[in-house]
Fold Orotidine 5'-phosphate decarboxylase.
Amino acid sequence: MTLRNSDPREKLFVALDLSSLGEAERLVDRLGDTVTHYKIGYRLGYADGLAFGRELAAAGKTVFFDLKLHDIDNTVREGVESVARMGAHYLTVHAYPQTMKAAVAGRAGTGLKILAVTILTSWNDLDCAEAGYSGTVSTLVPMKARQAAAIGIDGIVCSAQETAQLRAVGIPPAIEFVTPGIRPAGSASGDQKRIVTPADAIRGGADRLVVGRPITGAADPVEAARGILIEIHGATA
């Protein structure tokens, strides 16, 4: 469901992968209205970040809990129910069929959107082989994405290098593509192995981008965010 001709802030999630609640609060205050969407993962989540996410949602921000749930069905379903009550807008689960089915059941009747993580953007074919998969990234991602679509998942987390491929294999336009591993031109790749620039990601079919260190680690996070938003706007014009 490529989001064209809308406020570019709707397409950008800033990943608050910070070590303390104080750091996150200061960054959000500094970014102000420049950023409206935030992602909270393990690092901040386990440092009072989940409660902070509730506060952000109450303040009108869009909150994405990147918890990558994967457990027995009841545990996943009940966990999703709890996250929905916190006011979060997005939640990730690993793209295993039983996990996705339980997550869809848990979010029933709420506004929470479930995102399925196919293959981590820090993985390549060697990583898949070491994990015991017989397929490659290029075969596993579409297989998992098709399963997610059939189950009723709201969106898929994947590399921007895979978005066009996924639309080509029949992933419906209503399913959002949320893309991490975004690095502006000239940025270090860090621990990501399948990266693209913001503009290339949007042109390739990504609906929402997740950007962390290029903003949170910048000397001027506001200017860094604005630069990415300008790039997003240019790609959607």
